[in-house]
């Protein structure tokens, strides 16, 4: 019989049930509200007002998923299994577009690639006219592809590094060409990694608000935001459609993934390295182009915004509307909110992780499913559900525009990211150690504080770090329910971009990118091998 390690199973079950209700509340409230608020909910659901945004959302998500799957897999293959020079450098640079919230990346593309932008000015100097407009479907597709492909690149690269080289060597000895080996041997073994990464990209694409808002492409998320006040029945109907779309894709992806499930391979001591030969210059050019467009170009745009604004302010052309003293408050709010959300998320998920790993409890299994599934719930739906709840109920009105409600929304949105790392952390604690400590008379609180928590700390910190990074870049939840006196770097940057204060946007965006870049390096790039 397994011994409990913190508290009792009954206490863990109570906490897990409460967490399950909390994580399920926004989705449940949206569905309930849709069918009680409108006199004809089914009519609104299938009206012309909802069909257009739905079709545009599907079109964008499918295109972005396909392009990121191809781009991320190709980059992973080149940097892990081909003899390109400076492979370690590319492996460090390619995940870094994750530091950009998509709305900042979209704004940088507009600034760089639109007529009159940096690229147009540079091409004009060499006699080339550039008239491509970053707007609509094309602009949204390009922005989302460039700044979400690491979700595919990271798991695929991790899986490729772990594939045993013996099977590929055998295929080569039997006379198979490299392309045949890739198609028949490698791709089936990395299919689950590609599928998992593409799922994240699809969910990101259907829920993204910032990029589609700046590109003026009317998807479900943008339509929900614009109709939330003046046409609540349509906003609620669009929300339910987006919720069903996310759930349906998650279920379909899990069913399809089972067909490709294979045993986790052991890391090969001698991974097969393919020689590119005459194709090497083209491969290097491809890597340079990917890094330049998705990382260096946006960084150059942010620097250009800020430098132009500071230069104008110094020359008396226009006052910079943000002083360096003003940067502190949004930066502190961003860091503080991210840290608090990460701590609460880990604390909320940990009891369910204990129930799953140590007690094999059905309640833990249900809690695990609900918490993980909540990660597929778009942020704008969580924000909208809690906004309507605070506006329409007496209980909710006391929490309107409070930090407590904002942290709760962050935890529901990103708490699922900590579930896997929490389970691994719990499994790392030997029951023999806890049994020995209990035999020596240590209470459960003392065992948890002095024995289990230190052993679990690395895994819990990793999960909390991912939550911090995600919260730091979250936009729609913060726009909808953040306290009025709690500005963050995301809201400051987004509002500056929307109001065409380019220099100020450069300052806010630059600080945000630096903060998220530090977290991305410590919790994603340094742990790239663990994304398998």
Please describe the topology of this protein:
Layout: H1 9-37, H2 41-45, H3 48-81, H4 87-93, H5 102-113, H6 118-125, H7 136-148, H8 150-162, H9 165-173, H10 178-207, H11 210-214, H12 220-227, H13 232-257, H14 280-315, H15 324-357, H16 362-374, H17 379-392, H18 394-397, H19 403-414, H20 419-427, H21 431-439, H22 444-473, H23 476-481, H24 489-498, H25 502-525
Helix pairs in contact: 1-13, 1-15, 1-16, 1-17, 1-19, 3-4, 3-7, 3-8, 3-10, 3-13, 5-7, 5-14, 8-10, 9-10, 10-13, 12-13, 14-25, 15-16, 15-19, 15-20, 15-22, 17-19, 20-22, 21-22, 22-25, 24-25
How many β-strands, per DSSP?
A: 0
Low-confidence stretches: 1-7, 261-268
Globally, the shape reads globular
Helix content: over 70%
Question: Helical element count?
Answer: 25
Describe the largest sheet.
none
SSE topology string: HHHHHHHHHHHHHHHHHHHHHHHHH
The percentage of residues in β strands lies in under 5%
* End-to-end separation: 33 Å
Rg, nearest Å = 24 Å
| Class of secondary structure makeup | mainly alpha
Mean pLDDT across every amino acid position: 83
Key words describing this protein structure:
532 residues, mainly alpha, 75% helix
Description:
With 532 residues, the protein is mainly α. It is 75% helix and 0% strand. It has 25 helices and no strands. Helix 3 (48-81) packs parallel to helix 7 (136-148) and helix 9 (165-173) packs across helix 10. The longest helix has 36 residues, at 280-315. The chain starts with 8 loop residues before the first helix and ends in a 7-residue tail after the last helix. Mean pLDDT is 83; it is low at 1-7 and 261-268.
């Amino acid at each position: 019989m397994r011994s409990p390690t913190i508290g009792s199973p009954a206490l863990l079950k109570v906490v897990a049930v409460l967490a399950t209700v909390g994580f399920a509340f926004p989705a449940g409230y949206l569905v309930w509200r849709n069918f009680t608020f409108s006199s004809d909910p089914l009519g609104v659901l299938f009206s012309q007002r909802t069909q257009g945004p739905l079709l545009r959302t599907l079109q964008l998500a499918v295109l972005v998923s396909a392009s990121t799957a191809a781009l991320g897999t190709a980059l992973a293959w080149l940097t892990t299994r081909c003899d390109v020079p400076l492979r370690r450098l590319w492996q460090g640079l390619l995940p870094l577009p994750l530091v950009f919230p998509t709305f900042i990346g979209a704004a940088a593309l507009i600034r760089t690639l639109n007529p009159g932008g940096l690229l147009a000015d540079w091409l004009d100097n060499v006699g080339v006219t550039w008239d491509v407009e970053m707007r609509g479907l094309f602009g949204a597709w390009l922005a989302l592809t460039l700044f979400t492909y690491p979700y595919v690149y990271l798991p695929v690269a991790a899986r490729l590094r772990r594939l045993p080289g013996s099977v590929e060597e055998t295929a080569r000895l039997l006379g198979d060409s490299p392309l045949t080996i890739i198609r028949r041997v490698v791709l089936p073994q990395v299919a689950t990694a590609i599928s998992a990464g593409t799922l994240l990209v699809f969910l990101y694409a259907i829920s993204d608000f910032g990029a589609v808002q700046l590109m003026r492409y009317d998807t479900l998320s943008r339509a929900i935001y614009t109709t939330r006040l003046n046409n609540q029945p349509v906003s609620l109907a669009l929300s339910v459609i987006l919720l069903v779309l996310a759930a349906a894709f998650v279920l379909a992806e899990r069913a399809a993934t089972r067909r490709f499930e294979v045993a986790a391979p052991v890391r090969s001591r001698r991974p097969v390295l393919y020689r590119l030969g005459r194709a090497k210059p083209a491969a290097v050019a491809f890597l340079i182009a990917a890094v330049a467009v998705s990382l260096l170009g946006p960084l150059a745009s942010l620097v250009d915004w800020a430098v132009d604004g500071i230069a104008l302010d110094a020359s008396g052309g226009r006052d910079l509307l943000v002083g360096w003293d003003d940067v502190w408050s949004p930066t502190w709010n961003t860091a503080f909110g991210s840290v608090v959300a990460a701590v609460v998320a880990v604390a909320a998920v940990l009891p369910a992780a204990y129930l799953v790993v140590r007690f094999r409890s059905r309640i833990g299994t249900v809690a695990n499913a609900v918490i993980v599934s909540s990660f597929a719930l778009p942020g704008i739906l969580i924000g909208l559900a809690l906004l309507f709840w605070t506006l329409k109920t007496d209980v909710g009105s006391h929490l309107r525009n409070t930090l407590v409600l904002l942290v709760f929304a962050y935890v529901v949105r990103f708490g699922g990211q900590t579930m896997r790392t929490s389970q691994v952390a719990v499994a790392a604690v030997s029951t023999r150690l806890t049994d020995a400590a209990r035999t020596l008379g240590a209470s459960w609180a003392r065992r948890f504080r002095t024995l289990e928590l230190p052993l679990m700390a690395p895994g819990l910190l990793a999960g909390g770090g991912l939550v911090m990074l995600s919260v730091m870049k979250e936009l729609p939840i913060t726009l909808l329910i953040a306290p009025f006196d709690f500005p963050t770097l995301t809201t400051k940057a987004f509002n500056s971009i929307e109001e065409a204060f380019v220099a100020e946007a450069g300052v806010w965006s630059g600080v945000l990118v630096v903060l998220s870049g530090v977290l991305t390096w410590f919790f994603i790039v340094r742990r790239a091998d663990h994304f398998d």
